[in-house]
Known about the structure:
The chain is α/β, with parallel strands linked by helices. Helix content is 27%, strand content 23%. The strands form 2 sheets. The chain has an 8-stranded mixed beta sheet with strand order 6-14-13-8-9-10-11-7. Helix 7 (215-227) runs parallel beside helix 8 (253-261). It is globular and about 50 Å long.
Amino acid sequence: MPIKPRVLQRGDTVGIVTLGSPIAASIINAGIAFLQGMGLRVAVGKYVYVQNGFLAGTAEQRAEDLMSMFTNTEVKMILPVRGGVGVESILPYLDYKLIAQNPKIVSGYSDITVLLNVLYQFSDIITFHSLLLIDFRALTPAYNFEQFFTITSSTVSPRPILNPPGVPLTGRVQGDVSGPVVGGNLTSIVGTLGTPYEINTAGKILFLEDTHEPINTVYRYIEHMRIAGKFEDCLGIIMGECTNCPEAYGKSYDDLINEFIVPFGKPLMTNLASGHGFYKAAIPIGARVNVNTFNNTITLLEAAVR
């Protein structure tokens, strides 16, 4: 059984880290102030504001910040500022045994996807494909906060993972399967293939989403995943949105799903609001979910926190 972090409560401390690309200090500070306005305390990593081109400090510095949050007994949740590039470069510098001994809520999406899945695989802790610090702002839909706080602050289970009203989940291949859910950002996951941090999809439900990639590039990534056997050994597939992904050669994201994902023959749910989309469902990486495409439901079968 995977390790569940403790529930997040009002007054708890959130550790802020920058693990990939940098972002303006004003945006970081605004996110911190928003968190504090929600009744949460904040601990800021030593290198959060560092900017070195397209990276926020060296890999060792970013890994040091992350490890310091895992060993800080006051910190209940670790919240990366953003994704960007470079998250995979910190992976060799992490102490996975120590992380397992100090489980914390870790939330994020985009390139943080790599970290979420690696922490589940190497430290056996449930992580959360959900909000980043940049999402803690007034313009974020209430649905996103409801999803985030329900999954990190509640032990109620089973319970449905619901899209926002008016955005239906759509089953494309019929089936009813249950298992741990893994995945997230397709571009980031493809980058782990052939490395020690390659995603393990065997006996899992594979969730994918992407953004700002033309459909022929998305096809390339899907084909790479297929050749790597990631669709052959998974139990089922959840396809999230491909946000701002332009058509290519007259083919859309919907065409790609119908022509290249449906033929895998695995139970397939599509149209999950997630990741880079305006609406963001919270997906607990490593927790058991049920995907039922007969009634178009995704159900969290166990609490993701304790």
